[in-house]
What we know:
The protein is of the alpha/beta class. Helices cover 24% and strands 37% of the residues. It is built from two helices and eight strands, in the order H-H-E-E-E-E-E-E-E-E.
Amino acid sequence: MIRFPTRPLVGPLAALGLAMVAPAPLQAADAQVVKIDNFTFTPAALTVKPGTTVTFENDDDIPHLVVANDGAFRSKALDTGDTYAFTFTKAGDFAYYCGLHPHMQGKITVAP
Ligand SMILES: [Cu+2]
């Protein structure tokens, strides 16, 4: 008797509330970009949450490679404009370097 008239109202309102609240914080934590330019990773040190996908984007005019020190990930040679994405699922420090120019170094810290 009470349930019947309230149901059609509660459903749509709850759905609206979820749709407006959920996406913003998820997107902010899910994607990060490291730019490669002038033989430098920027930012050189980046802290992300587990599950974050980091995209390395080569804006330099020569090829670069992204290689994890511990072998956790390795890109192919990235030409100008190419990108390489890796999703960090485990917490920890992931140092990396450029396979063509080992003096180019960076670090991703994954922490909850
Ligand atoms: Cu390089």
